[in-house]
Amino acid sequence: MALIVEDGTGKSDAESYNSVAEAIVYITKFYPSSTFLTSTTEEQEAFCRQATQYLDMKYGGRWLGDKSNKTQALDWPRQDAEIDGYLQESNQLPQKLKDAAFEAIQIFVAGDDPFEANDSFGTVKSEAVKVGPISESIEYMGGKSTYKKYPKVDNIVRAIIESAGNLERG
Fold first, then answer.
1. Are 128 and 136 in contact (CB under 8 A)?
2. Backbone torsion region of residue 82, taken as left when φ is above 0, otherwise alpha when ψ lies between -120 and 50, otherwise beta
3. What are the helix (H) ranges across the chain?
């Protein structure tokens, strides 16, 4: 089944923010030894779909602006999204979104599932370590997320999502 790429028109059947060809260019530049480059076309298309699904699931509801139309399958394109001080064209996808999707592809290529709980975080209730004047204290038990974090993707999308809170001075 051929990959259906969002082209800025708000397709009702779009599956990916990037084409395989675009992903190959980016990944060749930044990850030349990535197994994405030697994967079959079907596998590459699946990675593109997974990356897009991950972005929409993780950041959905926090994107800047509003969906361009109610029938579009994906969260982008959007209208009234101001990015870096400029209004994003409502019929285009921001490059930061595409770059985040390329990086998310690498998460799946590595065999990670970003929504799968990571057992390595345990459920420590309390722990304190002191070495001279330096001390560290840890207490989890239900408070620490067990999901992996992907700071590179988070940093790329930072400019296209709503901030957690705004501080206004009067």
1. yes
2. beta
3. 20-30, 41-59, 95-109, 151-157
Alpha-helical regions (H) of 31-167: 41-59, 95-109, 151-157
Closest CA relative to residue 53, chosen from 36, 39, 67, 73: 73
Element (H, E) at 131: strand 127-131
Q: For residue 20, what are its two tokens?
A: 């395989």
Helix (H) or strand (E) holding 67: strand 66-67
Cα–Cα distance, 87 to 94 (Å, whole number) = 11
Instruction: Quote the pTM value.
Output: 0.80
| CB contact at 8 A, 101 and 150 | no
Report which of 2, 161, 12, 17 is spatially closest to residue 76, judged by C-alpha positions: 17
Question: Which residue's entry shows tokens 């998310």?
Answer: 104
Mapped onto helix, strand or coil, the DSSP state of residue 64 is coil
* pLDDT tens per residue across all 170 residues of the chain: 799 999 999 999 999 999 999 999 999 999 999 999 999 999 999 999 999 999 999 999 999 999 999 999 999 999 999 999 999 999 999 999 999 999 999 999 999 988 775 555 555 555 666 676 676 766 656 555 556 789 999 999 999 999 765 544 44
